[in-house]
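This section describes the prediction task in plain terms. A model, or a person checking by hand, is given the sequence of a single protein chain and must write out its three-dimensional structure as a string of tokens. No templates, partner chains or ligands are provided. The sample shown here is typical of the held-out split.
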Amino acid sequence: MKLKIVLYPDPILGKVCSPIPEITDEIRTLARDMLETMYEAPGVGLAAPQVGRLINMVVYDPAGKDEPKQPHVIINPEVTLTSARRKAASPSPWTSAPTCAAPKPST
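The expected answer:
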């Protein structure tokens, strides 16, 4: 089921999310719905707060435009800085703020 995308400046986008203690059928359904919403947006990634859920879950697809879909779901991610230097690629629009863009890191 396609979900409604929360747009900036909605305050939910700045709130702290809760960890997911257990992967339930409800979480699996939400992940599928988030992927469907991301693809229809169109986008390459979507976090749970962007669909109004304050939980630690992200979906994304690293596939290129002409490649088969490669859906990924990350639950309770932890961000670790692995390099002090990052090269920036072309700007990528944000799903929740389509008129904004930020550089996508490249390797």
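For orientation: The two ends are 34 Å apart (CA to CA).
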